[in-house]
Design brief:
Elements (H helix, E strand, L loop, with lengths): L11 H14 L11 H8 L3 H13 L3 E3 L5 E3 L20 E2 L14 H13 L11 H13 L6 E5 L2 H12 L5 E6 L3 H9 L3 E8 L2 E2 L1 H9 L2 E7 L12 H11 L6 E5 L20 E6 L1 H4 L6 E5 L1 H12 L7 H13 L4 H21 L11 E5 L3 H10 L2 E2 L1 E2 L10 E5 L8 H12 L2 E2 L2 E2 L1
Parallel strand pairs: 3-13, 5-6, 5-8, 8-9, 9-10
Antiparallel strand pairs: 1-2, 4-11, 6-7, 10-11, 12-15, 14-15, 16-17
Length: 443
């Protein structure tokens, strides 16, 4: 079970530290089954409750995962080794289409909005005790939600989409609970859930979002939450269609206790309508980030949801950071009221590059996905080989392992910095890289 490694300690903290030391040194490899609590308690001559407390600590830190009677195992990707660590350094002279950043030329300047926020602050400084959501931001956000058919609900503001997802999950879930996430999907969510002590149930996706049969399976396996990317899904570009949303709502109807989280990080960069699952169950939240449309450093997302969820989120936030700076909130108000970003134009710009690459790959016999957003997802047989060949050809792409649990290998290509003239050259390189090597020669 543990090989030659021996867990030591008399206190829960010491036992947990011993396991973490084994994981860190490599002595306890990913997937290693830990001893049952009573068995380990007997070996260490401690109370079983002490071992239970140690295992609970390890789950909360994302070091191990527990699956009922199957026992506790070392996670295959401990929280101390997040997926973004899989990024490779891009050598000088290599074209980088791996990073997933928006096109800087499509981002609005922030000096004006921030200056306007500063002038507003000079007239009425933010003080303790004020509403954590600036009234003007709340009005604009509510109008946007209503226009997209999102149910009325209380609101909160967090430091970006991931912060919002974490706060919403923490409002309802506890270590050991299962959360259904898209696979392939956003690697940060795949890291966040285990770091919170949650079990990840992968849900396969196609161009229209999570597959109903996969969601049904996750619900049958006890998922207590479902996280869905409404549009511009990272990494596949999927967007939930009206028909898919209706099918998922029907699946969720018999499970009113399941928490549903809609991530609308693509707001402002896509022209596809929003088909959210908000309100399909008793507890829900929709998170709308400003990062992709206005800049990654504008760390702000607006949330809405049911009264209980938002009350818990705001209450816990009040005991931590308190609120997101109103300087940022009023900068967003300025951006929204002045129309600094034309979503249709931004969507058209990304769409032209994305569609051109998908079409060019299809002409070369390479299947690719990219319905919305700034990424193209290319299924491959061997990620490492394809990434290496493309690097040699002068292109840096992202290995799909950062975004997968059980889904098939692929690579992600970000088109945001891609010039139209570069598309044929990149398509040629990808087509050459994905062809199988037989007898030392490519087909």
């Amino acid at each position: 079970m543990l090989g030659d490694y021996r867990i030591a300690g008399r206190r829960a903290s010491e036992i947990a530290a011993s396991v973490e030391a084994g994981v860190g040194s490599g002595a306890l490899e990913p997937g290693t089954l830990l001893p049952p609590m009573r068995e380990l308690a007997g070996e260490l001559e401690v109370n079983p409750n002490t071992v239970a407390a140690a295992y609970r600590t390890l789950r909360e830190r994302g070091v191990i995962e527990t699956d009922g009677r199957r026992g506790s195992r070392v996670r295959h990707r401990p929280a101390t080794a997040p997926r973004h660590a899989l990024r490779m350094a891009v050598p000088e002279g290599v074209r980088d289409v791996a990073q997933g950043n928006p096109d800087p030329d499509l981002l609005p300047p922030l000096d004006g909005p921030l200056a306007a926020a500063a002038r507003r602050y000079a007239e009425a400084p933010t003080l303790y005790g004020q509403d954590p959501v600036a009234p003007e931001l709340a009005l604009l956000a509510r109008a946007g939600f209503e226009a997209d058919g999102v149910p009325a609900g209380a609101m909160a503001v967090t430091s970006g989409a991931l912060d919002g997802i974490e706060r919403v999950l923490a409002a309802h879930l506890r270590p050991g609970d299962a959360v259904a996430v898209e696979d392939p999907g956003w690697g940060s969510v795949m890291d966040l859930a285990p770091a919170m002590g949650l079990r990840v149930l992968p849900v396969s996706v196609d161009d229209e979002g999570p597959r109903p049969e996969a969601v049904a399976r996750a619900l049958a396996e006890g998922a207590k939450a479902l996280v869905v990317t409404a549009r511009a899904q990272n990494p596949t570009g999927a967007a939930v269609s009206a028909e898919r949303a209706a099918a998922l709502r029907e699946l969720l109807a018999p499970h009113p206790q399941v928490l549903v989280v809609d991530d609308d990080h693509g707001h402002g960069i896509v022209d596809l309508p929003l088909y959210a699952l908000s309100g399909a169950t008793r507890h829900w939240a929709l998170i709308r980030s400003t990062a992709k449309a206005y800049g990654p450093d504008l760390r702000l997302a607006v949330l809405t949801g049911d009264a209980v969820t938002m009350d818990r989120v705001r209450g816990r936030q009040g005991l931590g950071p308190g609120w997101v700076s109103r300087l940022l909130q009023y900068a967003v108000v300025e951006l929204w009221t002045t129309g600094a970003v034309d979503p249709a134009a931004v969507a058209a710009s990304y769409g032209a590059r994305r569609d051109a690459l998908v079409a060019a790959l299809a002409e070369r016999g390479v299947r690719a996905h990219g319905r919305s957003g700034m990424n193209v997802w290319v299924p491959v047989a061997d990620e490492t080989a394809v990434v290496t060949r493309l690097l040699t050809a002068g292109w840096a792409v992202s290995a799909g392992a950062r975004f997968r649990v059980d889904s098939q290998p692929a690579v992600r290509i970000t088109v945001s910095g891609l010039a139209p003239a570069e598309v044929p050259e990149l398509a040629d390189a990808v087509a050459a890289a994905v062809r199988p090597v037989l007898g030392g020669r490519r087909d």
